[in-house]
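Milestone M4 deliverable, item 7.
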Amino acid sequence: MRCFLAVSPPAENDLDEAAAMLRSCQKGLRPVRAEARHLTIAFLGELDRESIPILEENLTVALEGFEAFPWRIRGLGAFPDIPFARVLWCGVEDHDPWRELRSRVDVALSSSGLAAIGSDFHPHITLARLRRGRPSGPLRSLLRGEAGRDFGAGVCRELHLISSILRPDGPRYETLKTFEFPDLV
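Output delivered:
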């Protein structure tokens, strides 16, 4: 089964507004459904069902002592870059807790005989993909102009192990396990 580890956006967010801003500037965007938005910590690819319990156990150990932390969704951006945008996203402020979380996940994956697919980790929430062509002038201007705008804030309290089923109308996600972080003291 195709799996990844992710964090859900905070309940109070302006991601719908951000997505609408993107759509207003560019035709041919493939938006991410609101219920499918997430911040991927690690994409795992295809996993055997037998490996899931081992991974869950190793994640529980690796995440021990990791506390909930505040986070802020900030700015619009694009991969690979603005002039050649393919993936349009909202970023996050303060990458340190995200890097610590990813580091702990990497330890759990290694202990499970697994590894994340893709070595670069840039915390973001994908809002849309550009199907073809280059980004329009208005889209490029929007991305540059909204690089520092706030789109919501909250507290990261859990990590989800999610299976993904690819379908013609978009992926369908099922949460297999949730790992909760204790609140800050």
